[in-house]
């Protein structure tokens, strides 16, 4: 299962975040996909993930999430990722600034029967906001 699960996760990142095919979530995620870290303001479902991703792509048209290291243990795939983008659309109620951000994050995905079933994730959102100069502390 290890290589197959890792391949699914890598293909997911490549298809959805490198080529920008957000509709591919339908192919990669199970119908009952559960997101334990949903995009803010969106349900913890496949549809919520797709809507949140579309919202981020609207704010950051060049949004990229690239896996730097991917490994599997106990039926879950962990990925250390680099997330980047340029602020060209409204984000958190803020007009586009043209500023670029690049932060790291960690995703954990449970793969079952070749589909993503669950997701846990965290990104350095404080650093992201600081780089975009949207943080009230910057």
Summarize it.
The protein is α+β, with helices and mostly antiparallel strands and 138 residues long.
Mean pLDDT across the residues is 94
Report the principal-axis shape: globular
Helix content: 25-40%
* Helical stretch tally: 4
Counted beta strands: 5
Stretches where pLDDT falls below 50 for ≥5 residues?
none
The main β sheet shows up as:
5 strands, mixed
Strand content: 35-45%
Give the structural class. Answer: alpha+beta
Distance between the termini: 45 Å
**Cross-sheet strand order for the largest sheet:** 1-5-4-3-2
Task: Give the C-alpha Rg.
Answer: 15 Å
Secondary-structure element pattern, one letter each: HHEHEEEEH
Question: Could you explain the architecture of this structure?
Answer:
The chain is built from 4 helices and 5 strands, in the order ααβαββββα. The protein has 138 residues and is an alpha+beta fold. Strands 1-5-4-3-2 form a 5-stranded mixed beta sheet. It is globular and about 40 Å long. The N and C termini lie far apart (45 Å).
């Amino acid at each position: 299962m290890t290589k197959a699960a890792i391949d699914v996760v890598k293909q997911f990142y490549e298809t959805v975040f490198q080529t920008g095919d957000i509709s591919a979530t339908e192919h990669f995620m199970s119908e009952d996909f559960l997101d334990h870290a949903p995009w803010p303001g969106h349900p913890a479902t496949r549809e919520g993930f797709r809507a949140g991703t579309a919202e981020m792509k609207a704010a950051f048209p060049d949004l990229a999430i690239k896996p730097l290291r991917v490994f599997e243990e106990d039926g879950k795939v962990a990925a250390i990722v680099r997330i980047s983008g340029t602020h060209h659309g409204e984000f958190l109620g803020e007009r586009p600034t043209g500023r670029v951000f690049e932060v790291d994050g960690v995703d954990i995905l449970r793969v079952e029967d070749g589909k993503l079933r669950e997701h846990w994730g965290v990104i350095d959102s404080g650093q992201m906001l600081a780089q975009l100069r949207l943080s009230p502390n910057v």
